[in-house]
Amino acid sequence: MEKLFDQGINIFANYESFNFEYGEGCFGPEVEVRTLDAIRKSLLEPNCDGPEKVYSIAMDVGKKQHQQQLNEQHLLFGLVTYAKGRLGQEPIRSQGHIHKTSAYANDWSTPEVYEIWSGKAIIYMQEYAKDHPGRCYAVIGESGDVIIVPPFWAHATISANPENPLTFGAWCDRDYGFDYDDVRAHKGLAYYPLLNQDNEMEWQKNPMYEKSELVVKKPRIYQEFDIQPNKPIYKQYEEDNDKFKFVPRPDLFKEKWLDFIP
């Protein structure tokens, strides 16, 4: 079992059991495991080889003292850990999706606030999953980095280093759900991440989409949401319980999403 960076909560990934271990004073569910067979339709090579268990998810974790409050705020903290290895030419990654709209958010799709705990991640996102994807970004994050995916954007989380497992936490809306229809209709997102022989990331355009530019960048500091760098996002929640209100209620922060840059 590897202890990760000081994530502000006593929960750790166990890479041998592909599970999470909840320390004293913490709560969390049995993990959900996504298998290779379950995500083949979204891959460049649907018949590729790869780990049988691709990633495990623990949605709704936290400190017991916050459990009722999180429910009342419609806020949820989730954890995900990825296996080592590849999916054919591709890195380990999630399926591309859009967050379903939430009645609590007045029928807005909800954003997500990622925090990388271990490994190296690329959060790929595009404005739309229609024929023209709009703006496309690949944001590269390492341990401690925070990356926000805005409402309505299609996105996927990619492990950028096949030799090290990726683990990350995320603030989500409690009414979370995933819409895969448009992404699957286009056989994935607008760009496929590929690993070359040196395990370096390359990008292949998906011909199902119209031409668009991919911007590869590092995370920025989200001053408009008062996100503090180098401080775990769970600890920031403890210090200010309303800081992540924009996650379940993005409709109250409309001006902050205009021309949003990840």
UniProtKB/TrEMBL annotation:
<keyword id="KW-0324">Glycolysis</keyword>
<dbReference type="GO" id="GO:0006096">
    <property type="term" value="P:glycolytic process"/>
</dbReference>
<dbReference type="InterPro" id="IPR010551">
    <property type="entry name" value="G6P_isomerase_prok"/>
</dbReference>
<keyword id="KW-0312">Gluconeogenesis</keyword>
<dbReference type="GO" id="GO:0006094">
    <property type="term" value="P:gluconeogenesis"/>
</dbReference>
<dbReference type="InterPro" id="IPR011051">
    <property type="entry name" value="RmlC_Cupin_sf"/>
</dbReference>
<protein>
    <recommendedName>
        <fullName>glucose-6-phosphate isomerase</fullName>
        <ecNumber>5.3.1.9</ecNumber>
    </recommendedName>
</protein>
<dbReference type="InterPro" id="IPR014710">
    <property type="entry name" value="RmlC-like_jellyroll"/>
</dbReference>
<comment type="similarity">
    <text>Belongs to the archaeal-type GPI family.</text>
</comment>
<comment type="pathway">
    <text>Carbohydrate degradation; glycolysis; D-glyceraldehyde 3-phosphate and glycerone phosphate from D-glucose: step 2/4.</text>
</comment>
<dbReference type="GO" id="GO:0004347">
    <property type="term" value="F:glucose-6-phosphate isomerase activity"/>
</dbReference>
<dbReference type="GO" id="GO:0005737">
    <property type="term" value="C:cytoplasm"/>
</dbReference>
<dbReference type="Pfam" id="PF06560">
    <property type="entry name" value="GPI"/>
</dbReference>
<feature type="domain" description="Glucose-6-phosphate isomerase prokaryote">
    <location>
        <begin position="52"/>
        <end position="206"/>
    </location>
</feature>
